[in-house]
Amino acid sequence: MIPIEHILLLSALLFTIGVLGVMLRRNVIIMFMSIELMLNAVNLSFATFARGMDSMTGVVFIFFIIVVAAAEAVVGLSIILSIFRTSKTLDIDEFNLLKW
User: Fold this and answer.
1) In whole angstroms, what is the distance from residue 75 CA to residue 44 CA?
2) Residue 92 · residue 27 · CB < 8 Å
3) Residue 10, domain CATH
4) Which residues make Cβ contacts (< 8 Å) with residue 50, sequence separation at least 6?
5) Longest dimension (CA), the chain
């Protein structure tokens, strides 16, 4: 058995890497993957707590997070693709399409 503290430490590390990826990178694809990494880190912590407390509540939350992540992936990738077709770049600083 792996101790719960080790799994939560791994989850916190993955979440931190995701936050740093969103904050420090300017490429939209890398930012998008960092958001997915943060969602998976939260899933890992929910699974750890569900196992530690012998409850299925965390697994239900994981299911809903996976559904939201799949919907976010579909919508996010379609938006990224349409913006790339018009601006020919994936640099977030070059996107001025949503400004008034």
Assistant:
1) 24
2) yes
3) 1.10.287.3510
4) 56, 57, 58, 59, 62
5) 55
* Residue pair 41/18 in contact by the 8 Å Cβ criterion: yes
CA contacts within 13 A on the Cβ side of 5: 0
In a domain, 50, yes or no: yes
CA gap 35, 10 in Å, rounded: 16
How many helical (H) and strand (E) elements, i.e. helices and strands, does the chain have? 3, 0
- The structural domain count of the chain equals 1
Q: pLDDT tens digits, residue range 9-51?
A: 999 999 999 999 999 988 888 999 999 999 999 999 999 999 9
3-state secondary structure of 98: coil
Give Cα separations from 47 to 21, 70, 91 (angstroms).
24, 18, 35
Q: Name residue, tokens 């994981």.
A: 62
The residue range of the domain holding 54 is 4-92
Whether 100 is covered by a domain: the verdict is no
